[in-house]
Amino acid sequence: MKIIVFSDLHGDACGARLAARISRAEHADKTVVCGDIFGGASYKEVAEALSEVSGVQYFLRGNNDYGCYDAFLSSPAEDYAIMYHFGRTLFFTHGHRYNAFALPSFLKEGDAIVYGHTHVTRLTVQNGLFALNVGSLCRPRDGVAAYMLLDEKGARAVDLQGRTISFLPWQN
């Protein structure tokens, strides 16, 4: 199982096409976009590009996404997604409501929260939980455009050249 995660495209159609290419090249079983998908006038182009991502598609609403855009997406946008893989619960969200400092009550030790919103890539363990911030593919605030891969080994943040910039194993 391989899950690829993007966040904070902010209406960048080139970024959405890049996300689709990366998702297909990585042969992702599931692709999650953790919000702030839209912004600007290219919402149709962004949605069309994202319809080409690999595997099961999860589109999550960010603080800049509104329900009026949902009809353009190939899968309905949700506020969050919950999955069980790699022996743990994975909670995907944008990060403006839930994040490493504002956790949903059902997560327990060893589970993971995966989010964006800050545009800064950061993989940590806090109070026994994996706090995984994907950063931003299009507007990084830490200077590194990134996406995340989750598999049976752990969480890996990857730059646009395909280099691992951070890795956090599940057995931490």
From TrEMBL:
The keyword Chloroplast does not apply. Keywords: Metal-binding. It comes from the Bacteria. Residues 1-152 form the Calcineurin-like phosphoesterase domain. It is an enzyme of class 3 (hydrolase). Its EC number is 3.1.4.-. GO terms for molecular function: hydrolase activity; metal ion binding. Pfam families: Metallophos_2 (PF12850). Its cofactor is a divalent metal cation. Belongs to the metallophosphoesterase superfamily. YfcE family. This is Phosphoesterase. It comes from Candidatus Fimimonas merdipullorum.
